[in-house]
Amino acid sequence: MIPILLIDDHQMVTSAISAWLCADKRFFIAGTAATLTDARSLMEKLDPLPQIIILDISLGKEDGLTLIPEIKSLCEKRKTPLPGILVWSMHEAPFLIQRAMDLGAYAYVAKSAKSDEFLAAIEAILKGVPYVNTEYQKRKEQQQDNFRLTSRENEIAALVKQSLTALQIAKRLGISIRTVEKHLERIYIKTETSSWEELHNL
Asked: Of 20, 41, 79, 123, which one's alpha carbon is 20 to 30 angstroms from that of 134?
């Protein structure tokens, strides 16, 4: 059976996904976590790591994507293969997909997706093939034709999507609020938005 680690801060969602996956006799849930702290603790105990990690972007006010580099480092330390990371989120903004895949995710699925798409993403991971819904891929390619956010801009835009204010972003990234505001000015131009609210709702 294929072990899966599920990281999401909504207990009902976790329970539903766990039951659905376990109904498919190929999979079993090796563990669940609701916070970054819980996820780190669990990953230290699981050796080897599960074959697939399903990771939510928004873990309360925490950025789930920051866990991906940590997973990479842990695998390098243990000299073990990187699990297939499936990022799933309520957000469908192209720059979030870009950031997730750039960090090392194998698949990106929206929480609004149907179960067959979720399963298709898992199947792709098992085959070693990246998966992004065709519709989202078109949006991502269109975005890249029009503009491309820098790594830092992408990170800040992603945090705005998670409802963090400029001050909270500055504290999270260890930079000044003025620096955040300068980045936001460029992000607004590139995304054709004019405010935090518009970017958040993009």
From this structure: 20
